[in-house]
Amino acid sequence: MSDLEYARKLDELDRLLNDPDIPMQPDRIWSLLADVSRPEVTLGRSSSDSMMWHTSQR
């Protein structure tokens, strides 16, 4: 999931939870929570890119 997709899902989740004009949608909320809480989600650089960047900075 890209940074942009992650941010969009968080924005949608925020609206669903906090906007009183939007009806509660429990299935969608749980789905978004599952998407943004997966441990394999990487933001920014991948771990291998990060490792390469750190080693090249020495």
Q: Which keywords apply here?
A:
mainly alpha; 3 helices; 58 residues
Short description:
By secondary structure, this protein is mostly helical. It has helices at residues 3-18, 26-37, 47-56.
| DSSP helix fraction | 55-70%
The number of domains? 1
Q: List segments where confidence is low: pLDDT < 50 over at least 5 consecutive residues.
A: 47-58
- Per DSSP E runs of 2 or more residues, the count of β-strands stands at 0
- What order do the SSEs take from the amino end to the carboxyl end, as H and E? HHH
**Distance between the amino and carboxyl termini:** 30 Å
Strand composition percent: under 5%
Let me know the largest β-sheet. none
Shape: flat
- The helix/strand class is mainly alpha
SSE topology:
Blueprint: H1 3-18, H2 26-37, H3 47-56
Helix pairs in contact: 1-2
Describe, in plain words, how this protein is organized in 3D.
This protein is mostly helical. The protein has one domain. Helices cover 66% and strands 0% of the residues. The protein contains three helices and no strands. The chain has helices at residues 3-18, 26-37, 47-56. α1 runs antiparallel to α2 (26-37). The longest helix has 16 residues, at 3-18. Mean pLDDT is 78; it is low at 47-58.
